[in-house]
């Protein structure tokens, strides 16, 4: 709020009542030496204390919820006071209080190279690109030591980040139970949500589940085996409360409607508005797992690998790592085949690659063929060097972007198709996470068993 003497009503009052004394006073002060106490001062702009939240990023769950693996500091600021002006103020974004909190985090977590992910909460921002550039400039110009690197900037209208009073900052307790403990299951990862940052970003979930494979149009409900595995994981993690379980999943293009139906209560249309509504399948799942509520975080993919299911795999010709031109149908004839699309620049592809060689070695005597197609169009020399570095021995085909994008509609890597001995695509697997090597092996074993039967 500005000083009262600068208000419009104050000026009008002075002009209407004290016109002549004001003129006389002005004359005298011009003729006489100016008293130091009467020197005019420019009113200082009122400082606005920012609402903010800052945390060290230390757990896999926190990185999962933030969506980036690189940052080690999370900073959220309430930008409502600066958004209306259309520009960001350095002394607001990196205020004295914000810098003090950052110093605490850097010191207590021994962070040498602080890298910040910034979440800006506020009303509608007309020019997000301009505001993003301003944030980058503020961090670039900051004299904060050690130098802060701004990794990413996100804009949100969520004000729940600042509800209540932040608890005092506490350094990590070396003897305490690890926060956000995780458990890798078959086809999923489970986390018990205990850290302040994770609870904030998960909207208060007690257990957080990430499913490895996308929901397709054939999905109806989780199998009894999957429900049993999820329940066993929850029991082992032993959360303090069982109010909310959140399940994050991807859906194929066709699977989006399926998940909408799964999370919606069925319509009864019986005309009785007071009758209890049947529970949704998601609510029934929550009950099975021992929770009061089950939330789903859904990320929709823009393609549907299931469109190729039960069809003959499209043929193509590409060169392999030895520079030899090969025909896909020829080298896979009569064999159960794992057809993998990947690239060197894809981190999960690199994690998966050694397991593909292991599968080729394990099942070679049973008529299994493992093939990787490089969909990144990386150079042959790079592929050969990478195969040597990772000790890869399964066949790799190069310059396969056209095949990946055209015939197989690959929009995410790694993507693996499983073909029976007749060349029919029977299954697929998207991405690669911890424990997925067992899933790949299981899919191959299933096709081999069908071949024997």
UniProtKB/TrEMBL annotation:
CDD domains registered for this protein in UniProt: TlpA_like_family
GO molecular function, one term: antioxidant activity
Residue intervals of the Thioredoxin domain: 307-449
InterPro entries named among the record's database cross-references: AhpC/TSA, Thioredoxin-like_sf, Thioredoxin_domain, Thioredoxin_ResA/DsbE_sf
SUPFAM superfamilies (UniProt xref): Thioredoxin-like (SSF52833)
Pfam families membership: AhpC-TSA
Protein name: Thioredoxin domain-containing protein
UniProt source species: Blastopirellula marina
């Amino acid at each position: 709020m500005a000083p009262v003497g600068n208000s419009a009503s104050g000026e009008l009052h002075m002009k209407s009542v004290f016109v002549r004394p004001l003129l006389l006073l002005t004359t005298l002060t011009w003729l006489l030496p100016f008293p130091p106490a009467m020197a005019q001062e420019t009113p200082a702009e009122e400082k606005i204390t920012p609402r903010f939240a800052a945390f060290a990023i230390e757990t896999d769950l926190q990185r999962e919820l933030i969506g980036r693996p690189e940052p080690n500091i999370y900073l959220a600021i309430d930008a409502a006071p600066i958004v209306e002006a259309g520009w960001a103020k350095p002394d607001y974004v990196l205020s004295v209080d914000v810098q003090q909190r950052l110093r605490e985090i850097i010191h207590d977590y021994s962070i040498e190279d602080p890298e910040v992910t910034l979440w800006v909460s506020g009303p509608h921002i007309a020019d997000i690109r301009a505001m993003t550039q301003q944030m980058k400039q503020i961090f670039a110009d900051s004299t904060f030591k050690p130098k802060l690197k701004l990794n990413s900037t996100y804009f949100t209208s969520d004000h729940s980040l600042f509800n209540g009073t932040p608890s005092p900052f506490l350094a990590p307790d070396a003897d305490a139970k690890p926060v956000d403990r995780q458990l890798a299951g078959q086809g999923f990862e489970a986390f018990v949500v205990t850290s302040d940052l994770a609870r904030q970003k998960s909207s208060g979930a007690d257990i957080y589940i990430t499913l490895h494979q996308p929901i397709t149009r054939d999905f109806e409900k989780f199998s009894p085996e999957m429900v049993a595995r999820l329940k066993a994981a929850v029991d082992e993690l032993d959360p303090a409360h069982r109010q909310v379980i959140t399940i994050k999943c991807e859906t194929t293009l066709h699977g989006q409607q399926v998940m909408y139906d799964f999370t919606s209560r069925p319509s009864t249309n019986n005309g009785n508005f007071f009758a209890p509504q049947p529970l949704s399948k998601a609510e029934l799942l929550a009950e099975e797992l021992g929770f009061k509520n089950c939330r789903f975080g859904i990320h929709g993919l823009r393609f549907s690998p299931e469109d190729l299911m039960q069809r003959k795999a499209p043929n193509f010709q590409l060169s392999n790592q030895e520079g030899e031109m090969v025909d896909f149908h020829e080298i896979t004839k009569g064999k159960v085949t794992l057809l993998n699309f990947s690239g060197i620049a894809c981190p999960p592809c690199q994690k998966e690659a050694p397991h593909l060689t292991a599968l080729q070695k394990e099942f070679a005597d049973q008529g299994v063929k493992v093939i990787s197609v490089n969909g990144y169009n990386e150079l042959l020399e790079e592929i050969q060097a990478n195969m040597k570095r990772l000790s890869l021995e399964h066949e790799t085909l190069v310059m396969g972007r056209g095949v990946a994008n055209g015939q197989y509609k690959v929009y995410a890597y790694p993507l693996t198709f499983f073909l029976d001995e007749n060349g029919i695509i029977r299954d697929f697997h998207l991405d690669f996470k911890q424990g997925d090597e067992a899933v790949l092996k299981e899919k191959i074993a299933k096709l081999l068993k069908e071949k024997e039967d």
